[in-house]
Structures are given as C-alpha cells and as structure tokens.
Known about the structure:
By secondary structure, the protein is an alpha+beta fold. It has six helices and 24 strands.
Amino acid sequence: MNKLIYFILPVTLAFMACKSKKQEPAAARENTTTENLVQLTDAQLQSAAVELTQLAPKNIAYTLHVSGKIDVPPQNMVSISFPLGGFLKDTRLLSGMQVTKGEAIATMEDPQYIQLQQDYLTARTKLDLLAKDYIRQKDLNSSKAASDKVFEQAEADYKSQQIQVSALAQKLKLIGVNAEKLDPSTISRTVNIYSPINGFVTAVNVNIGKYVNPTDVLFEIVDPSDIHLGLTVFEKDIPSLSKGQKVIAYTNTDPSKKYECAIILIGQDVGNNRSVEVHCHFEQYDKSLLPGTFMNADIETKNKQVQALPEAAVVANGGQQYVFVAHDKHTFEMVPVKTGGRENGFLEIQADDAATLAGKNIVAKGAYSLLMKVKNGGDEE
Length: 381
C-alpha cells in the first residue's frame, strides 16, 4: 500500500507541472510587451481608457527657432586710414565713444603736408601767369601779330597748368585741406581727420606719436542706425518665410527681453550646411545691441495645411517622439515620428511619417499609459 502511494504522488506532481507549463503561454498572451509592441487585456484597456483617432488635415502656424548674430551693412561700417600716411599727433578716441559726422577725431603731422600745400600754391600762382599769357597770345594771334605756333604753345602751357592745379587740389582734399581757402598764411604742418559718419568707435589701432602708412587702419567706426540681425535658416524652412514677416529676437544673457524685427531680405545662396542667410531689421534700435552679438529668434510662419494629431497622441522617450498604432483591439505598436508646428491642441506630423500613418488607427488617449508599459516591460497594470 505504501509503495502505491509513493508511485502516484510523483506522477500527480509531474502532471500538474506539465499542465502549468501549457497554461503559461495563454496567460502571457493576455499581457505581452516587446520592445515596440504592447498587448493589453480587456481590463488594462479599460484602465488606460484608450481612444483611437486618425491623421486629419489642420491649418497650423508654427514657430521656427533659429539663431544668428547682429550685423552691420558695409555702408555703415567705416575703416579710417590716412592716404598720405604720417605721424599721429593727437586723438581723444576710445573704443565705444560716440562720434558725429564731420567731427575732428584725430590730428596728423608730417613735413609732406607742408610740401603739398606749397606745391599747390606755387602751381596756382603759375596758373595765373600762364592764363594772362594765354589771353595775350590769343589777342596777338587773332590780329596776326603772333604766329600760330606761339599761341598754341601758350594754350598748351595754360591747360597743362590747369591740370596740375586741379590734381594738387584733389590731393589736398584727400587729407582734409580745402584748396580754395588755402593761402601762404594758412599753410600748416598738421591736418585733421574727420569722422565720415555718425556712430561709435569699435576699434582704435594707433597711439599718439606712431607713424602710420597709407594702408594702416587707424580707427573703425560703426553707424548703428541700420544694424540688422542675420539669421541662419535651414533650406527646408525657407518656403515658410516672406519679406516683412515678424521676428522676435532675444539674447542668451537676457532671454526675457524681446526685440521685434521684420525680415527685409532672404538670401538666395544655400550654404554647405544647407542653410540660407535671412536678414532682419530691428523695429527699434537699442544701443546695448552691439555688432557681433549672438542672438536667438522665433519666427512665426504663415498658416499651412498639414496632417496632424492631437498633442496627447504623441509621447516622448529618449529624445525621440512616438505614436502608438493599433493593430487590433488589444495590440499596439510604438512608431517613431517627427513633428512640426503645434496649434490649438494639435501637432503636425511631418510629411514622410504622415504618409506612413495615413488611414491607420492611432491612440489619441492613453498613449502615455502604453509608453509606461513599454518602459516597464509590461509590469504596469
């Protein structure tokens, strides 16, 4: 009798173990989660309150987030040199100082300035003499009292001297000397450098007593009245932009302070990184904005019709965005998507992904619960 009991007990245990193993797959099918696939039981579906939707066309205005820096047009940035060179005798300029157009900003000194003024006055005196001789020879020639050759020589000498005087006057103008007001009593060994524009000094490259060559840049001055913001925009976003479009810019140091701008020019050249330069004009100039300052900007684009989903349908995980596509009532696949603009609770699905998801049922409510099941390997109840 005891032997019979010992025999039945192992057989019974083995049978129960086999039955348990056969039932495990059925239980697993009720609550299965793979890397991108989720299967829910009826109870889990009810708990997650899953609702489905499909892509639908929506008019969405989205915001481009771009960056760039403050720039100045070439005509508003001046590098000041001195055409004849010389020694810097005096200047009061410091970087950041404001200057006005026509203001004397430096004084140069050199013996060649004296020589140039002397040459001009000598040439002008000689011109007066040759002018009188030309008139006299012209009268004599008209009465046949002088030969044509003598008259022609007098005419040539007079016109040649006119050229000489005019050339010397232009050289004097280069160094800021008014030739018409020059006389022997006003000859000077020094000349002034005058600011050609209104603006502020951005660079002082010389010191008093230094000799500078004609090619040396003494000062750099910027007129900030026409500063603009140069933004780098990717090629794919250019069709969304237009001249006159509003832009909100801000710096990294003070992002709460906003600067209103408007697009004035969209570049026609695509760079190596598939980007285009977009130029914007500030609605109101702020003196604290200096050329070269790095800025961020938001550009609100015009409404366009796109394929969109409710914002709740898109979840984020690991820097990537996903939606859950329903294969049947209980099975859902997590699919990566790229999004665009958002408005009124809807989020744009970019064209390539929209084509893939067209006509498919997508989880509109409960997507976050499904994401938690994926992240926890199906342990969420």
